[in-house]
């Protein structure tokens, strides 16, 4: 492997996917617990990652260091990166990601670093203007086990825009909405993409994680009253999708949400961690009950919320 990989662009999803693939590749055969670290360029102490990268790995052939959000890097970190890229150690793989280099005030250490990386490593760029959102939507739908025709792909892009991350999230919700198999119709896409504001659904998920039954029920009632027939079923799909996002966060993965909400959710997860097997068993029972019409959708949703907030 090469000592430095620079992944940049305004198409955040592709940048994140490239980072994940490079990290998995670099960690192959490496004792990750001792030799893998992730930093954010805008955080205090971010420059420590370079000192760690220069340290010999423990019981492995290399260290793998990831530095994200280069667009937030202060000048002193950029200068340190430029110096590091001049002579990177062979015992480390440094993966740098971000939207773009910060605007330079004086010496442009970002561009200097990039020029040096080109000599010793690899530079990858992902620009939204170069993406093909309809093709991406069709391929993503296939990976989720559902099908999406070109006409429906264009409908989806018209509804939510060309941002690939947003397209992926809406397709995940739509796939859940139709049961994880079959073809996504225009009607299903419009139902899911016009579903109640995602921020309000996060309020419901927040209450579940925090085990606040009163807030969970009052938020659900507000959403049900604002929706239409069948809204309870769609809410269960949305809760399932967002819980999957939170499990990804709990495992240390990246989840897109506002910074203040991320901090709040991370604190709630530390206090009330989610058991994945238990969670999805409860969700599956509720979904089965709704499909079987053994009780009213609203009653099943309320029972599910109470079940989730009282989980062991």
Topology (SSEs and partners):
Layout: E1 4-8, H1 12-26, H2 32-35, E2 36-40, H3 48-53, E3 63-68, H4 75-86, E4 92-98, H5 109-120, E5 122-125, H6 133-143, E6 146-147, H7 150-160, H8 164-177, E7 182-183, H9 186-193, H10 198-209, H11 213-226, H12 231-250, H13 259-271, H14 276-292, H15 297-309
Parallel strand pairs: 1-4, 1-5, 2-3, 3-4, 6-7
Summarize the structure.
With 312 residues, the chain is α/β, with parallel strands linked by helices. The protein has helices at 12-26, 32-35, 48-53, 75-86, 109-120, 133-143, 150-160, 164-177, 186-193, 198-209, 213-226, 231-250, 259-271, 276-292, 297-309, and strands spanning 4-8, 36-40, 63-68, 92-98, 122-125, 146-147, 182-183.
Low-confidence stretches: none
Q: How many runs of DSSP E, i.e. beta strands? A: 7
Instruction: Please describe the biggest sheet, giving its number of strands, its sense, and whether it closes into a barrel.
Output: 5 strands, parallel
- Percent range for helical residues? 55-70%
Strand order of the largest sheet: 2-3-4-1-5
N-to-C series of helices and strands: EHHEHEHEHEHEHHEHHHHHHH
Tell me the CATH topology of the largest domain. Rossmann fold
Strand residue percentage: 5-15%
CATH superfamily of the largest domain: P-loop containing nucleotide triphosphate hydrolases
CATH class placement of the largest domain: Alpha Beta
Q: End-to-end distance, in Å?
A: 45 Å
């Amino acid at each position: 492997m090469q000592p430095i990989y620079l992944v940049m662009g305004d198409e955040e999803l592709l940048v994140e996917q490239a980072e994940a693939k490079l990290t998995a590749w670099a960690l192959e055969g490496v004792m990750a617990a001792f030799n893998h670290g992730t930093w954010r360029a805008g955080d205090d102490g971010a420059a420590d990652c370079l000192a760690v990268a220069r340290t010999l790995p423990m019981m492995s052939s290399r260290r793998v260091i990831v530095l994200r959000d280069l667009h937030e890097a202060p000048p002193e970190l950029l200068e340190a990166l430029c110096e590091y890229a001049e002579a990177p150690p062979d015992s480390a793989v440094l993966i740098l990601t971000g939207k773009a280099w910060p605007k330079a005030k004086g010496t442009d250490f970002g561009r200097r670093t990039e020029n040096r990386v080109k000599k010793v490593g690899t530079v990858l760029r992902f620009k939204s203007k170069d993406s093909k959102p309809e093709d991406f939507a069709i391929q993503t739908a296939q990976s989720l086990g559902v099908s999406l025709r070109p006409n429906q792909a264009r409908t989806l892009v018209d509804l939510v825009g060309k941002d690939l991350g947003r397209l992926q999230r809406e397709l995940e919700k739509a796939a859940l909405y139709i049961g994880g198999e079959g073809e996504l119709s225009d009607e299903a896409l419009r139902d899911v993409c016009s579903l109640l504001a995602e921020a309000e659904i996060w309020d419901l998920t927040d209450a579940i994680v925090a085990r606040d039954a009163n807030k969970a029920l009052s938020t659900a009632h507000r959403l049900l009253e604002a929706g239409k027939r069948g809204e309870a079923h769609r809410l269960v799909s949305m809760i399932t999708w967002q819980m999957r996002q939170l499990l990804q966060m709990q495992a240390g993965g990246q989840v897109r949400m506002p910074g203040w909400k991320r901090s709040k959710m991370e604190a709630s997860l530390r206090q009330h961690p989610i058991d994945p097997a238990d969670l999805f068993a409860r969700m599956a029972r509720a979904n089965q009950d709704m499909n079987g019409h053994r009780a009213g959708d609203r009653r099943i949703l309320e029972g599910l919320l109470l079940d989730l907030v009282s989980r062991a």
